[in-house]
Design a protein that fits this description.
Structural class: alpha/beta
Distance between the termini: 17 Å
Oligomer: single chain
Helix content: 25-40%
Shape: globular
Largest sheet: 8 strands, mixed
Radius of gyration: 21 Å
Number of helices: 13
Length: about 425
């Protein structure tokens, strides 16, 4: 039976969604703006522009998906060759491609992933207000009392990389955890791995997860860091751990395991789905290590397996930090390595390249952006074609459920991608 390999390029939007204005994101375009930024700012040795170069993703239809999403052709082609007007770009596109819009009420990680897996989030998550002392006093009092803490630091919206420089030294001296949040439905706790202890941090986050449930918070994230003083504190991405609520309906992953198949989860996928519907977990952090783990998982995977990867650095290291150069070069790294993955595909396998939301590094603020995402299906039995835009990410999951011969999911519509 077929295998399906999903790679989520976390935050890789391709143009603002129809409802983006309600989120303050009308005009956002993660791919288009990165391509423009690199053309204007990155130079070759002779001083000429060094354009964003993604030839393998272009061959899967990325340029044409962006055109379908925005109605515009990229000024600087990703393949180095002028884009042709026909849907298959003069025969160069080898995949079934389209764009997809989200119907979930948020633009967060859980909502995007769950909707891809067939479970849109139609309710509102809880959020903490963007003000000093943003957490309810009773929540912090309970965390301090039940966690046997001397107190907490932070209690505000903040960048994780910034707040550890600001409060890391005080944390080490006092033993008070750094507790903060963002525009997402999340409570984050940063602690020093050595002076506070990694397992103690995880235990504290488990407690916090229990305490935030009445507030409908989606995730509690453990953010361990190392270093000796402000200026050299660094987060340890490999030891990050998300404590997430489970999806409220069966997902593609649940149905796969229930039907006797396997689900191999790479990186943060296991955390996103609360370790439900997971057969094997491959921990990894960083673009190259996650790609290595994905390659290994595909090598290990028997027939009737779903291999599911999340490349979180596009979001956490580049999008949120508004690093257009890092984001573009990260995309080029993924593109250079993509042939390794393609070479492992068996005749009936299907590879999907997609994303969960946007995070335009040229946009205002540091939040996610409400964008359409690319949907690129590739495989030996997949017909190269332009598909109609998907009006919910769940069309992706329903189509993959059909590929895997699973029972239909509760949401979305399966699309014929076959030759």
């Amino acid at each position: 039976m077929a295998r399906v390999i999903i790679t989520i390029l976390d935050s890789f939007g391709i143009g603002y969604a129809h409802d983006a204005e309600a989120f303050g994101d009308k005009g956002a375009d993660t791919l288009g703006h990165i391509a423009d930024w690199m053309a204007a700012n990155r130079k070759q040795a002779d001083g000429t522009p060094q354009y964003l170069f993604l030839p393998h993703l272009a061959a899967l239809g990325l340029e044409k998906a962006h055109e379908l999403s925005t109605g515009k052709i990229l000024v600087h082609p990703l393949s180095g060759e002028p884009v042709q007007a026909d849907p298959l770009d003069g025969g160069r596109v080898k995949a079934a491609y389209t764009c997809a819009e989200e119907i979930s009420k948020g633009k967060d990680t859980l909502s995007g992933h769950w909707e891809i897996a067939g479970v849109p989030v139609r309710f509102n998550w809880g959020y903490f207000p963007d003000k000093p002392k943003c957490f309810p006093p009773e929540l912090m009092d309970a965390l301090v009392k039940e966690g046997n803490l001397p107190g907490v630091l932070g209690e505000k919206h903040a960048s994780g990389t910034v707040i550890i420089q600001e409060l890391g030294e005080e944390h080490r001296k006092t033993g008070k955890p750094i507790v903060y949040t963002s525009a997402d439905s999340v409570l984050q706790i940063a602690c020093h791995e050595e002076t506070f202890g990694l397992e103690r941090l995880y235990d504290l986050c488990r407690l916090a997860y229990k305490l935030v449930q009445p507030y409908r918070i989606a995730r509690v994230i453990a953010r361990p860091f190392v270093g000796t003083e402000a200026g050299n504190f660094e987060r340890v991405a490999a030891h990050r751990h998300d404590f997430a609520v489970p999806a409220h309906e069966p997902t593609l992953l649940d149905n796969m395991v229930k039907a006797g198949g396997q689900v191999y989860a790479i990186g943060k996928i296991a955390d996103i789905f609360a370790h439900r519907g997971i057969s094997k977990h491959y921990p990894a952090a960083g673009l190259d290590p996650i790609f290595d783990a994905t390659v290994q998982a595909v090598k290990d995977a028997p027939d009737n397996t779903l291999v599911f990867s999340n490349f979180v650095d596009f979001d956490s290291s580049f999008g949120h930090r508004r690093d257009a150069l890092g984001y573009g070069e990260g995309l080029e790294l993924y593109d250079r390595r993509l042939p390794e993955l393609l070479a492992l595909l068996r005749p009936d396998d299907v590879l999907l390249v997609t994303a969960d939301h946007g995070c335009d590094p040229t946009w205002k603020g540091t939040d996610h952006t409400r964008e359409k995402v690319p949907v690129l299906f590739y495989g030996g039995t997949v017909k190269a074609q332009r598909l109609e835009p998907f009006h919910t990410f769940s069309d992706i999951g329903q189509t993959l459920a059909s590929c895997l011969k699973l029972a239909p999911l509760g949401n979305g519509k399966a699309v014929d991608i076959w030759r």
